Amino acid sequence: ARLPDDQELIKKLGLESMDCLRESCRKKLFEMEKFMAEHRREKEVEEHLLKKADFDLPESQVNDEIRLALDRMLHEAHYRGLKREDLEKNRDAIVGSATETAKRSLRLRYLLGGIAEQEGIAVSEEETEQELAKMAVNLRMKSGQLRADMEKNGRLDDFRERIRDDKVVRFILDGLKR
């Protein structure tokens, strides 16, 4: 296969010139850096909250969260092509990691939920629909079908919680900017 020359490339991309391509790449890189910086700040807020709070968690919820974490890890391992034998060799480490991830996630949800309640931060039906629509585009499905699947699997409330948690973290970040 041969690489296209500059003119073929810009024509294929629907651009006017190489300068337009360069500018488009610059904008995308800038947007990606902005997104990554915001993501780092969000993680810093989460880490700060987790360092400030240590409390016992309901065992049943921890066990449910561990199961979810293990499911995610196994799905990712399968996606990366790891074999069952590889997973069995590292079983203790995987379960330990899932347990730590589960406790961290659950503790963070409690903290963010408490802040949401204290600050009156809620998720409207419109916000839920907007986020479902974004996710549906990424999954290449209709938002109505995605919503129905989430309702069927009992995951819609978890989805709303994630939206709420994101709003709380943004609320905290906005407060730090003032």
Describe the protein's architecture and organization.
This protein is mostly helical. It has eight helices and no strands. Helix 3 packs across helix 5 and helix 5 packs across helix 8. The radius of gyration is 21 Å and the shape is extended. The relative contact order is 0.08. The model has no long low-confidence stretch (mean pLDDT 91).
In summary, what is this structure?
The protein has 178 residues and is an all-alpha fold. The protein contains eight helices and no strands.
SSE map:
Blueprint lengths: L5 H8 L4 H35 L6 H21 L4 H6 L1 H29 L5 H15 L3 H10 L3 H22 L1
Report the order of strands and helices.
HHHHHHHH
> What integer value in Å does the Rg equal?
21 Å
Give the fraction of residues assigned to helices: over 70%
* Cα shape: extended
| Total number of strands | 0
- Quote the beta fraction: under 5%
